[in-house]
Amino acid sequence: MKSKEITTVAMESTGDYWQNLFAELVKQGFEVVLVNGKFTKHAKGKKTDVKDCRWIQQLHTLGLLSGSFLPDETTEKLRTYCRQRGNWVDQAASTTHKMQKFLKFLNFRLDVVVKDVCGLTGLAIIGDICKGNLDPEKLAKHRHYNCRKSEEEIAKALHGNNREDFLFGLKQEYETYLFLQKKINECDKQMEKFINAELKKFPAKKALKTTDKPHKRINKNAPKIKNLNQVAYQYFEGVDLLAIEGLSHATVVSIMGEIGPEGFKKFESAKHFTSWLRLAPNNKISGGKILSHRIPKGSNRLKIAFRQAANSIGNLKDTHLSNFFKRVAYRKGRTAAVSATARKLAVIIWNMMVKKVPYLPPTEYLFLDQKRKLKVVARLKKNIAKLELKPEDLGFLPTLIPTN
């Protein structure tokens, strides 16, 4: 190819076997355009590999092919760890369902008395069952103090038939679940190690500090990276993504692994970014009339993360984004509201990353203890006004200002 003075190459991104060839061509100094296969499939006549190559070469010569988004090498390495972790989480979820199935076969209705079978109470009870303890009263002793059901209610749900084959299946699934959790923890450690190694290369980033967010809930499936709030703030060069209500630690890690801090700059505007995510309407216009405006099919991992964040935003109260969610949901339903809020979230994050615009919603987000404090203050003010009390009646003496 170099002897023929070729400088640029276009290739389809079909399957996984293109990756080694792509990396080698880039290493040799060629300008490589990686193209989605749907843009190159309209060649006339019978389909052959030779005709495909000629058609792609002709389109590339005329400048009719646009390259796909590819992250930088650092983001690509972190993405490998994140996606591997996601695969383990999916397998753990499947194993959880199998454990629930065997518990029902054994007539242990643990799912009725415990919200999460794989929570602290559930795992302790399942582990004891696998060890051979089948006494309902003793199993109920594993109740965590946060569990809503009492020990008596839990014991009533644990009178099983004790079949050996079902007990064997439950034990194997329980051991598989523990193995998968071990693999997930290994991925978390590797991700933390990789991110900290990247931050050490830039001392200016390590000096950045953000406000603590102790009220952000951390899901049990969230990546266990120490002080992720500060780490993400430093990784994104002073952009505080966790300041957005409803944005979880898992969503931030997905952004770090799928696109990275430099990936946002490859999109000219927020509209280009939302279009790449397939969150923008695909308007089909003919004769000045819009025939269709449905969102295109396809879901990458970043789109799924934004939609999950949007769904959690819909469960919040009295916030800027949750109010937007409920306005759309009232008119078009919750499904449309999830897509609309995910797009709005993507636009906000693009502006924060590219234009360095801080997130300043018109309605300030208040955490639970802040809301309780405001309610207590409002109730006290109401009672003081009702009883017509004065500061002197409450024992508060007015401050005297000395005069010369």
Automatic annotation (TrEMBL):
GO terms for biological process: DNA transposition. It holds the Pfam family DEDD_Tnp_IS110. It comes from the Bacteria. Residues 3-105 form the Transposase IS110-like N-terminal domain. InterPro entries: Transp_IS110-like_N, Transpos_IS110, Transposase_20. Residues 241-314 form the Transposase IS116/IS110/IS902 C-terminal domain. GO terms for molecular function: DNA binding; transposase activity. NCBIfam families: transpos_IS110. This is IS110 family transposase. It comes from Salinimicrobium marinum.
